Amino acid sequence: MNTEWVFKDRVAAGRELGNRLNQLSLTRPVALGIPRGGVVTAAAIAEVTGAELDIVLSRKLAAPNQPELAIGAVGEDGSVYHDRATQNMVVASPAYLSREIEHQLAEIARRKRMFRAVRPAADLQGRSVIVADDGIATGSTMLAALQTVRLQKPAELIVAVPVAPPDRLEPIREHCDRLICLESPDDFYAVGQFYLSFDQVNDEEACELLRKHWSEKQAEASRKSAITAQGN
Question: Whose CA is closest to 72, among 40, 94, 54?
């Protein structure tokens, strides 16, 4: 494996994405991480760019007896993205798909309660919205997330990922306004292949990142409000 394609960890990859994003003219940017690994990437982007940090929830639909293979995904608003070619290849029946969608929507509802106890959802209308993950494999969860975010009328919708296979970039590009992908190697097998450290991120870690950033933003807003009041 070519070492130029290896990122130290999600934070390092996110900071590099942030540096790329700083070259753009962004409107009140907000970085949305797809939990859980994508929250780490988005938090690093927010640190570098000064963007607000939040999450967007989407879950892959797993193939029968192949939990790592995505045959589609579902977004937090209930919208479903179907990967028809993969569904036909693995012979996913309508009954199986219905059960899997219901299962993943229940998991999204659980996560939504957990994350929204930490901070309310950001208002995305009219803003530069950056949807980030630690990488793209099939692209299903990203596409479901983009469907959800587009409905909230952002000024522009930007996808920022460290790595993705070349054949998955075009479908993503069709559903966003800008796509930033640091590396797109032909010898792609899995996202973790391109990281020196790719430990699993748990709910508590993702929540703590969101909580820390939200607290800092609130404190910053309070300071600005106090300065404005003094000036008056």
Answer: 94
| Domain membership of residue 34 as a residue range | 3-60+110-231
Total domains, the chain: 1
Task: Classify residue 120: in a domain, yes or no.
Answer: yes
The pLDDT value recorded for residue 1 is 44
Residue 99 lies in a domain: no
Asked if the structure places residue 183 within a domain, the reply is: yes
Kindly report the CATH number assigned to the domain that includes residue 139: 3.40.50.2020
Global confidence as pTM:
0.92
Answer for the pair 57, 35: CB distance below 8 angstroms, yes or no.
yes
Residue 7, beta-bridge partner list: 195
Exposure class string for 140-172: b at 16+ Cβ within 10 A, else e: bbbbbbbbbbbebebebbbbbbbbbbeebbebb
Which residues in 101-135 are b (16+ Cβ under 10 Å) and which e? beebbeebeebeeebeebbeebebeebbbbbbbbb
Run means of pLDDT, 10 residues per run, the chain, 232 residues: 72 98 98 97 98 97 91 94 86 92 97 96 98 96 96 98 95 97 93 95 97 91 79 70
